[in-house]
Amino acid sequence: MALMELASLEKSLGFKKANKYSTQGNNKTPILQSNKGAPLIGLVTIASHLVQEAAQPELLGRTAEQRAVVRQWLEYRVTQLDGCPKEDIRSILKELNQYLEDKVYLAGSDFTLADILLYYGVHHIMADLSVQEKEQHMNLSRWFDHIQHYPGIRQHLPLVVVLRNRLYTGGHH
Amino acid sequence: MSEMKLFVSDGNPHCLKVLAVAELTGVKCDICHASDDERLVPFLSHPVRPVLLLPCGQHLFKANPICLYFLEVSGRDVCDLTSQWLEWEAAELQPALMQALYQCVLLGKMTEAANTLEGHLTYMEQRLSKGATPFLAAEEATVVDIVLWAALYPLLSNSSFLPDKLQCVARWFEQVNALPVCQTVAQRVQQQKSLESLKRFLQKQPLPPARCRNAPLCNRAEEEDAEREMTDEEIQAAGATWSRGLADRPTPAERRHPILPQEGKRNVLITSALPYVNNVPHLGNIIGCVLSADVFARYGRLRGWNALFVCGTDEYGTATENKAREEGLSPQEICDKYHAVHASIYKWFQIDFDHFGRTTTEKQTEIAQDIFWRLYDRGFLIPDTVDQLHCENCQRFLADRFVEGICPNCRYPEARGDQCDKCGRLINAVELKDPQCKVCKRTPVVRSSAHLFLDLPKLESQLEQWLEQSMSTGNWTSNARHITRSWLRDGLKPRCITRDLRWGTPVPHPDFSGKVFYVWFDAPIGYLSITASYTDEWEKWWKNPEKVELYNFMAKDNVPFHSVVFPCSLLGAQDNYTLVSNLIATEYLNYEDTKFSKSRGVGVFGDMAKDTDIPSDVWRFYLLYLRPEGQDSAFSWADMALKNNSELLNNLGNFINRAGMFASKFFEGRVPQMELQQEDKRLLAQVGFELRQYIQLLDRVRIRDALKCILNISRHGNQYIQVNEPWKKIKGGDEDRLRAGTVTGVSVNVACLLSAMLRPYMPAVSATIREQLCAPANCADAMFQGAGSFVCTLPAGHRIGTISPLFQKLEAEQIESLKRRFGGQQIQSAAPAAATVPASPSATIETSANPERAKQLLQEVAEQGDRVRALKAQKAEKTLITAEVAKLLQLKKQLAAAEGKNPEPSPQKGKKK
């Protein structure tokens, strides 16, 4: 999974040649072998490295504060979202939805690497949600739809249908 | 920087990290000790520590990013190696560490804790011993060392924790621990009785995460991609099964009506929710009910079950009366007309009902009244009065849809008696302000009317007992279980079963004469009466719970009526009725990215599918491929073309066609001699596995999933042909020619199996394949016995017929034009006028194309457009502009209608049943 993400990220960043990756351990942590020096290990580390290499450091945040926020959501992705047990999914969706209530992107008004990796990480969950559940997490769905339509980001992933018109109203049946 | 606030709590190793790094980098911030239970970060579900409140008001709630932030603020950069260690710490070490801390501190099992951490500590040992530096990332201690020191401090500060072999880790820890920053911070926590607070911290954490020992749960995509490897035993067994052949299985008996339950057979009664007669069903209705039920019924017949599949149109009720008024016909005429429409649509979709009846029959009256009297005699019906609107002029009570007025909630002037289209809220008709009879436009009066209620609370315990048994032994989809439970949880209330209407089954009680049964009470009884119209011995199906398994198919909005309300009617009637044992409910099918809507003309409706020139079988395939099983799905034209071209044409059709063509071209239309090798048997094993999966899935009514098994088989088959290249081998020596023959023979047999497996899904294609292969009539029967076995049904020497392609490509232009055709403005009927436009005769919408009128309207639209632009330019009063804009829109609508297009959709809420 992580390897496909990295391949997609490379394409989004405009890499001409794809890097070679391997994985280690139970968690299938990705490894980037480079001829320059020691291999790099870990999704966040490799992704951040790729962004630097592509000379797009703004994707890691423009200020120290923004960089901290980006790092925080990247860590959230690999520690909370990945391998998350089924029963925790609800609370994660709720958290993200609430956080995104007043934000366009995870780091506020700038698109960053955090949006890309969180989008990849949350994709399989979003794809499984019913129309009603997506509607219940409207801020998250809006952000998700925004990112999947962001030029060059979606790559290997299928489009998840997010309806813009509301179907469900109120709590009655 | 002084506005920065750092919130920490005692005993939390993550707080130790940030405190030490703050010390290391010299970053100043207000340190606040906050109670652990206080939620500082508004969007997180649980309180966490540490939290850094940034000057900009953002919260940082993860320790490592806080540490790196301190690093950057103090003017240093974060390098890849630092990032890598911290990522490892958070993602890999922490889960194991939490478990180890739990074991050691709360359970007192230090050795176990050491074992838990062994892998991670060994990794550190290797990095330290191989690295050129005494610290993890550099010659001197960096943020990496501090973070890992803090994380491991609670365990490693006990010097006996580390096993001897981890010398480098031990030395490293000692060195870091001796750093002044660490000493300062460690002393601070020492004073706070670290162990006790650590315990408290751990007790508040979720139980040790089991996931760090197992593979992560979320990587489903990977699992699905993995090819299943066949073991040697499986391969040998598949070879043995194959060679059993057809033996002398008897040809299955023809279906003979009437089908009645039989002793010693599995008797399966299948119903699909009765479609409401006054409308043409859309694709969502078709896949949710009749098509799903049809696949299952066909599958049941293939399996040799004794299956009866009944359905029919639900014809009584207000909506029919409305429609009749609209079309100027009597309700009976409307029912006759639309029943025929439904029947012809289902015929086109090859829905193979044993009987497709209707609810407006003598039998319906007879059975419904019998159930009514039984409920009445047993005290399950209670009388009560209801306030209702009565139109003195029309001399009748007004059903919800016959009255309009001002919404009591949002003041929308055209709210219906049951719901407001503007705010969507449910309304009790008597609450409407200024109510109006929809027929004569006069003001109705409130009158109370006596009605009968089914006493659901009295039946509740009986219902629950039955539900528990039915759900535990039968097959109920999870949405059906869920919806049913939520109804029970909210508590049952008595439900009115009578109405002041004319078009319905009459209530036989003299005190309630002139009233009819409410549709929800009446319609499900239709299953019984329709069966009774099919056979006089209907009671053998419906009063035989011991020997009959009842499967109800429906969309999820229909669940409560089938799981709660109707069972209560039958339980209360106490006549040994057959109750549902398997309730199969689908989610919703959307159209492209919106809802099907008759009123807006969005989507494909049953009667239009045949005008698309796409064969019925392909429609069936795509709808079943998308079946909203477990989650909503969406119909998309582009996807339909893709699935047709990739799955049907290139995968399934290609394989079957190649297999047949090889046999007819290279072997004079006969199945060649076969000598199975390991590779052939491996294919047999793979195919056998998919067949058994298919049977397991369909037994559990997982219709969409089972379809994937068919496509997997042809994928295996294509690969098998590709690897073995029979078209080349046929030109070689004897051995090669034998090989080509074996591959061809196995392939046509796989094709024959596919024809059987396709039968429930694509009956016409399945029949065509059987015809092309001249397959024996008993072959499906043989392979669908028990768990399923793939046997050789077309032995060497078997003569096959003429092979021809099964599918056609769907071209992009064709799909584009269909998409345009069904995209929205399809139906030529009048859309309701927008609220701002006064309903005047000139505002009615033309309903048929009229070029003359169109020309005239085009001119009017242009003039009106100029008027609006002029007003806007003058900055005229808003109300004035709005009124003119409304006129313009109205004209555009009329123009569209006159041009034969449907007017722009007006926003409307979805209908509720």
Automatic annotation (TrEMBL), chain B:
Its EC number is 6.1.1.10. Gene3D superfamilies: 1.20.1050.10, Glutaredoxin (3.40.30.10), HUPs (3.40.50.620), Isoleucyl-tRNA Synthetase, Domain 1 (1.10.730.10), Methionyl-tRNA synthetase, Zn-domain (2.20.28.20), S15/NS1, RNA-binding (1.10.287.10). Keywords: Aminoacyl-tRNA synthetase, ATP-binding, Cytoplasm, Ligase, Nucleotide-binding, Protein biosynthesis, RNA-binding. One of its GO terms (molecular function) is RNA binding. This is Methionine--tRNA ligase, cytoplasmic. GO terms for biological process: methionyl-tRNA aminoacylation. NCBIfam families: metG, PRK00133.1.
